[in-house]
Amino acid sequence: NAGVTQTPKFQVLKTGQSMTLQCAQDMNHEYMSWYRQDPGMGLRLIHYSVGAGITDQGEVPNGYNVSRSTTEDFPLRLLSAAPSQTSVYFCASSYGGLAAYEQYFGPGTRLTVT
Amino acid sequence: GESVGLHLPTLSVQEGDNSIINCAYSNSASDYFIWYKQESGKGPQFIIDIRSNMDKRQGQRVTVLLNKTVKHLSLQIAATQPGDSAVYFCAENRRGSNYKLTFGKGTLLTVNP
Questions:
Q1: Who among B44, B93, B105 is closest to A41 (CB)?
Q2: Contact between A42 and B4 using a beta-carbon 8 Å cutoff
Q3: For the segment A98-108, what is each residue's pLDDT rounded down to a tens digit?
Q4: Is B101 close to A45, i.e. CB distance below 8 A?
Q5: Could you report the per-residue pLDDT of A16-70, keeping only the tens digit for each?
Q6: Of A14, B44, B69, B104, which cross-links B36 as Cys (Cβ 3.0–4.6 Å)?
């Protein structure tokens, strides 16, 4: 199993540009989440999904959109990039129920917005 | 505001010693607590979790203790090894929040040979 994969690993955007961060998992996990990690901070939840076709907002959803059309994929869209979105983005997945707390994280995407 | 916090941002120990990483929480509705390890340049990795109706849980070389009276939990690592050097995060799930996790800021553990 490849686990959780994220692309790209690094990205530089100009203010106002849009892009999609890709996330895929091959473990047939129900739950998928997107977090951002800023220096000296823990991870903050952006959006999450409890199954295909179901998404909900986390702690910091503004400026981001998600969709989940398949179990495997959970892309994160930045609508109009801002310097405040410079961060490392992690995608995570897990089984449902009480196993939802054992999340498997991808390697991250380091995004810089200039 | 931040409801899951760490007592110390850094911890340095000698190889072979036991390590104790602390975490405080403020929300009485917290139902599950989870510890994650993040090595440099990598995504976090699940270590162990504990439910609020438990006081202690043990894993391989790790023990998590939960003190609900003072809203405090700790992660103990036995016989710390250089491979244990990482940032350790505690995270909480609040009852009724649909498995969403709130992470603390993390403690950097450095193991000296």
A1: B105
A2: yes
A3: 788 899 999 99
A4: yes
A5: 999 999 999 999 999 999 999 998 778 999 999 999 999 999 999 999 999 999 9
A6: B44
Rounded distance between C-alpha atoms, residue A16 and residue A54, angstroms = 28
Give B78-105 pLDDT, tens digit per residue. Answer: 999 999 999 999 999 887 777 789 998 8
Which residues 91-110 of chain A have a CB within 8 Å of chain B?
A: 92, 96, 98, 100-108
Q: Residue A39 burial by CB count (10 A; 0-12/13-18/19+): exposed, middle or buried?
A: exposed
Q: Name the DSSP letter for residue A73.
A: B
CB contact under 8 A, A42 and B44: no
Helices (H), chain A: none
What span, in angstroms and rounded, lies between the C-alpha atoms of A59 and A42? 12
CB-CB: which of B43, B89, B98 is closest to A42? B89
CA distance A75 to chain B (A): 17
Side-chain-facing half-sphere of B102: CA atoms under 13 Å: 22
